[in-house]
Amino acid sequence: MSNSLKGFSAGILAAVFYGTNPLGTLPLYADGISSGSVLFYRYALSVIFFAAWLLARGESLRIRWGHAIRLAVLGVMFSMSSLTLYESFHYMNAGVASTILFSYPIMTALIMVMFYHERVNWRTTAAIVLAVSGIALLYRGGGEGGSKLSATGILLVLFSSLLYAMYIVYVRQFCITGMSAEKSTAWIVFFGWLGITAFMLFKGEPLQLLRGTQWLWGAQLALLPTVMSLFLINVAIKCIGSTPTAIMGAIEPLTAVAISCTLFGEPFTLRLSAGIVLILSAVILIILRKQTA
């Protein structure tokens, strides 16, 4: 399998897995579990899954202090991106927050141009415009009932988007030669869990205990949108680069829409179908761009 095919396949699967967040999050929220506790269990269980994966492969968990510092920076970046997004849900509709969050491909492209002198051609620009337009169609704009959007909520989402864009860029910059993607991702998740724990202690938020089937939802959040998604996105970034991987993330909300329509009974409208067409066009355009290059 060529590097490009491997990268695009990993990028698509990473976005699909990340889009399964509503499967576990919504039932836990409905049971009254706080966002901090949801994230705590999501990351803690992910660490356990990764450790079991590495031990089953016979791979050592030990790393050097210099490598630990790099991976700690990435882990804190990723976990703080999750936390600020979840906090924004207290100030605005989650669908609107998800729409604003998708500014991260633009931020990724800008970081690569400004600091790493990456050239952005018309295909990349058109793909970003198509993807953002498609995302905007997937969700209704504006606040609840046409009310004004919260400035605090917008700032939180934009900060979340910036942190995620920086993570996508620096995963490649902080690449550690000779370390497997599984091992580096495991440590990133571990340091992310430490970041979430520190935030909860600072905020004074108590940890709520999970019961019965809630553990299944927690395991789903750990396995699909965290372990598999993070591992595959790291593979994609190494194979095809940061900007194309970021744009491939447009498939994330498509998965969320599919879940909402099939499992939660939301209607599939003309607006949704138009959004899907625009997003898929963006993905095809960025794939063609890479093949041409």
TrEMBL record:
<feature type="transmembrane region" description="Helical">
    <location>
        <begin position="214"/>
        <end position="233"/>
    </location>
</feature>
<dbReference type="InterPro" id="IPR050638">
    <property type="entry name" value="AA-Vitamin_Transporters"/>
</dbReference>
<feature type="transmembrane region" description="Helical">
    <location>
        <begin position="184"/>
        <end position="202"/>
    </location>
</feature>
<dbReference type="InterPro" id="IPR000620">
    <property type="entry name" value="EamA_dom"/>
</dbReference>
<feature type="transmembrane region" description="Helical">
    <location>
        <begin position="245"/>
        <end position="265"/>
    </location>
</feature>
<protein>
    <recommendedName>
        <fullName>EamA domain-containing protein</fullName>
    </recommendedName>
</protein>
<dbReference type="Pfam" id="PF00892">
    <property type="entry name" value="EamA"/>
</dbReference>
<feature type="transmembrane region" description="Helical">
    <location>
        <begin position="92"/>
        <end position="113"/>
    </location>
</feature>
<feature type="transmembrane region" description="Helical">
    <location>
        <begin position="38"/>
        <end position="56"/>
    </location>
</feature>
<feature type="transmembrane region" description="Helical">
    <location>
        <begin position="120"/>
        <end position="139"/>
    </location>
</feature>
<feature type="transmembrane region" description="Helical">
    <location>
        <begin position="271"/>
        <end position="288"/>
    </location>
</feature>
<feature type="domain" description="EamA">
    <location>
        <begin position="152"/>
        <end position="287"/>
    </location>
</feature>
<dbReference type="GO" id="GO:0016020">
    <property type="term" value="C:membrane"/>
</dbReference>
<feature type="domain" description="EamA">
    <location>
        <begin position="6"/>
        <end position="139"/>
    </location>
</feature>
<keyword id="KW-1133">Transmembrane helix</keyword>
<keyword id="KW-0812">Transmembrane</keyword>
<dbReference type="InterPro" id="IPR037185">
    <property type="entry name" value="EmrE-like"/>
</dbReference>
<keyword id="KW-0472">Membrane</keyword>
<feature type="transmembrane region" description="Helical">
    <location>
        <begin position="151"/>
        <end position="172"/>
    </location>
</feature>
<comment type="similarity">
    <text>Belongs to the EamA transporter family.</text>
</comment>
<feature type="transmembrane region" description="Helical">
    <location>
        <begin position="68"/>
        <end position="86"/>
    </location>
</feature>
